[in-house]
Specification:
The protein has 9 helices and 4 strands. The chain is mostly helical. The chain has one domain: Outer membrane efflux proteins (OEP). The strands form 2 sheets. The protein has a two-stranded antiparallel sheet. Helix 1 packs antiparallel against helix 6 (about 280-315). About 25% of the residues are buried.
Length: about 350
């Protein structure tokens, strides 16, 4: 009837441990979603790269045909034709390599998402993100599941300290018995008893203080772990923010590069028809434009992944935060369902009987 609160502290500590484990589950959820984002963008990138390589092959084929026609009328030499042929072969090899990379990306997508990567839609607009590194770090420290997990572990450690201290106090139990007895003459009696027991430690050889010190040391370890995790999370948030800035800058610079390369390619091609440029000049200008377009494809994918990686570092890459239209795991509902469930379920008992019948238990 009285244990100094030991049982209550144990229950509350167990609840905090459950809450800490839930945060670990959120970490897994974020990793799964980030892997899915990476796999999705890889497929998109490789798909667009294949389309770009196919278009480039058609352009090079036209350049090769034009070089051959000009050679036939004596405007260019055999060297110009050979250069166009070499560039065509190179473009064909690049196309096959891009197709191989696409198949690999689809395999990674299948592993990450569980379905075939067919007909992927255009990526949605980027989620709203903080305007500064400091703001991102502030959100990360508040929301990151690793921080919350350790905070719950510290609360559990506090409760374990309180529980350990109750061991030095008294405990009280009450008991009773009742029965029916018959004497030799068959006369029935109904004996009964009730008892109140109060117990407490007198000497434990230092066991109780050592248990308390152990619980306190465990809390101090968790507090130290909290400080270390805070620094790591702040650093990770700053790094992710910097990577996002780099991706944005790269995308903008590549867009400018494409505009300039497009003008250069068209001008070089026009000058080549007038004899002011060689076939090699045209091929090089076309290759520069191709490289710029390929860089833009990668830059756009990198920007998307960097944005969601920053979201994960802030603890916001979750189904709830993104409001994804998928089936959600409700830990509260599961907890309420199993908290009073028996230790052994009916299914478990049935399995035990089967194993016993098979001689495996």
């Amino acid at each position: 009837i009285y244990d100094g609160g030991s049982n209550k502290f144990a229950i509350e500590a167990a609840k905090e441990t459950v809450l800490a484990t839930r945060q670990s589950l959120i970490s897994v959820e974020q990793n799964v979603l980030l892997d899915a984002v990476q796999a999705y963008m890889d497929v998109r990138r490789e798909t667009e790269t294949v389309a770009l390589r196919q278009n480039n092959l058609r352009v090079i084929q036209e350049e090769l045909r034009a070089a051959q026609d000009r050679f036939d009328v004596g405007e260019v030499t055999k060297t110009d034709v050979a250069l166009a042929e070499a560039r065509f072969a190179s473009s064909l090899a690049q196309l096959e390599a891009a197709k191989g990379a696409l198949q690999q990306a689809k395999a990674r997508y299948m592993q990450a998402v569980g379905v075939t990567a067919n007909g992927l839609s255009t990526p949605p607009s980027l989620p709203k993100l903080p305007d500064s590194v400091a703001a991102a770090q502030s959100v990360a420290v508040r929301n990151h599941p690793a921080m919350r997990q350790i905070q719950h572990a510290i609360k559990a450690a506090d409760l374990n300290i309180a529980r350990a201290k109750t061991a030095s106090g008294p405990t009280a139990t009450i008991g009773g018995s009742y029965g029916i007895a018959r004497t030799n003459n068959s006369k029935a009696t109904e004996p009964g008893s009730i008892s109140l027991n109060i117990r407490g430690p007198i000497y434990t050889g230092g066991n109780i203080p050592s248990v308390i010190r152990k619980a306190q040391a465990q809390k101090e370890a968790q507090v130290a772990n909290l400080h270390v995790s805070k620094r790591q999370i702040e650093q990770a948030a700053a790094t992710s923010y910097a990577l996002l800035d780099m991706a944005r800058a790269s995308r903008k610079a590549t867009e400018e590069q494409i505009r300039a390369s497009q003008v250069a390619f068209e001008g070089t091609k026009e000058e080549a028809t007038l004899g002011a440029r060689t076939t090699l000049d045209v091929l090089n200008a076309e290759q520069d434009l191709l490289n710029a377009k390929a860089s833009l494809i990668s830059a756009l994918a990198d920007e998307q992944v960097a944005a969601y990686r920053l979201l994960a570092q802030m603890g916001q890459l979750t189904v709830d935060h993104l409001n994804l239209p998928v089936q959600k795991y409700d830990p509260d509902a599961y907890y309420n369902h199993v908290k009073n469930a028996p230790a052994a379920s009916d299914q478990g008992k049935a399995l035990d009987r089967v194993l016993k019948a098979l001689g495996q238990e």
